[in-house]
Specification:
about 160 residues; alpha+beta; HIT family, subunit A; about 35% helix
């Protein structure tokens, strides 16, 4: 196979840059389904990654606009990790991954796409999820729509 038809990716490639911080804007709108927000807390919220590395890729985002978790207070850190714990248990139940990559990318040099607003990535992994597609064609297949996954995680 030489081509993979994925017209929905065009939005990622052609969308104009967002003005301001999306992690500040999205929770203000209160449209959780449209913005893929799956859980809200007092200090943090959880949102599906619009351009996921794998099915179930979720991020826990601080409500406060700070660039590193080192600027978060104890209550914020506790809520962030408690929410991560709940979501990983929910992902275990719904998607049954074999493992996870969990972490912060602090700064552009570390791979942060949004480097001025701290967020924790939770990426479910399965044995064999790196198959011939990314190896041979540089293409990753995501097996479930964000809309369907959002509905499952909101339960």
């Amino acid at each position: 196979m030489k081509e993979l038809w994925a017209p929905w990716r065009n939005k990622f490639l052609t969308h104009p840059p967002v003005k301001g911080c999306i992690f500040c804007q999205k929770p203000r709108s209160r449209s959780d389904v449209k913005n893929l927000i799956v859980e809200r807390g007092r200090h943090v919220f959880a949102i599906l990654n619009l351009y996921p590395y794998n099915n179930g890729h979720v991020m826990i985002v601080a409500n406060r606009h700070v660039k590193s978790f080192t600027f978060l207070g104890p209550e914020e850190m506790l809520e962030l990790f408690n929410m991560a714990n709940r979501l990983m248990k929910k992902l275990d139940r719904i998607l049954k991954p074999h493992g996870y990559n969990v972490g912060f990318n602090i700064g552009r040099a570390a791979g942060a796409g949004i480097e001025k607003h701290v967020h924790l990535h939770i990426v479910p992994r399965w044995l064999g999820d790196t198959n011939f597609m990314p190896v041979l064609s540089g293409t990753k297949v995501i097996s479930e729509s964000l809309k369907a996954l959002h509905a499952k995680l909101r339960v």
